[in-house]
Amino acid sequence: MTTDTLAASAWVRRFHPAHDAPARLICFPHAGGSASYYFPVSRQLSPGIDVLAVQYPGRQDRRAEPCIDSIPALADAVLGQLRPYFDRPVTLFGHSMGATLAFEVAVRLEAEGIPVQGLFASGRRAPSTVRDETVHLKDDEGLLADINRLSGTDAQVLGDPEIVRMILPAIRADYRAAETYRYTPGPKLACPVTVLTGDADSHVTPTEAGAWRQHTTGAFDLKVFPGGHFYLNDQAPAVLSVLKRFIG
């Protein structure tokens, strides 16, 4: 498949195709998130960077499909769909659960000898750090309370019972995937790893963010921004600037 014939699919969305861009950025959404979260990123970085966003099953136009509640299984499935897009340098960006998923995809790529230009892990503790989290076992009210606390979803959306009914299965599956994930020790990544975190994020301590350094033999950088778990909603210009400088 040539670059000119690459198109959006159920798994991969290209909101602003940039066929002549010298590099690609592949974005992985947070728990309960969708590819459309990265529409503004694509709009800002195109046409200099070809931005792809992963759409997990079980949400939006894929809501009739079964959710995948395992990070390793989701990484395997995503990698299979991304294979046509490695014809040029690729940088991976993931937020929250998406950061863990991007890491597992990077591990698989390098194990196959496919180089990764860089990994950006946002709002997520290092894979080797573990917390005993059981939000995915709470009832619907408890799950929604946690989402509201993180301020990651528009309050108007959560106030619509019909929308809540549709999105809760995907949110619960994603939380289960993120909270039950356990890192399997193996070779370190060779690619540079950049960690982005909010200074008031209760889900990531400075120690947990710094522990990402243990997962690469390449360069490591830690950038702290003002804000909580979804700091990037308010710090988008600064985050995009970091990405532009890195990808070139």
TrEMBL record:
Entries under SMART domains matching the protein: PKS_TE
Mark the transmembrane ranges: none
Occurrences of domain Thioesterase TesA-like (ranges): 26-247
Sorted alphabetically, the keyword list is: Hydrolase, Plasmid
> Could you read off the lineage of the organism from its UniProt record?
Bacteria, Bacillati, Actinomycetota, Actinomycetes, Kitasatosporales
Family to which this protein belongs? Belongs to the thioesterase family.
Hydrolase keyword on record: yes
The cross-references to Gene3D superfamilies, in alphabetical order and at most eight, read: alpha/beta hydrolase (3.40.50.1820)
| Name listed for the protein in its UniProt record | Thioesterase II family protein
Q: Which InterPro entries match?
A: AB_hydrolase_fold, TEII, TesA-like, Thioesterase
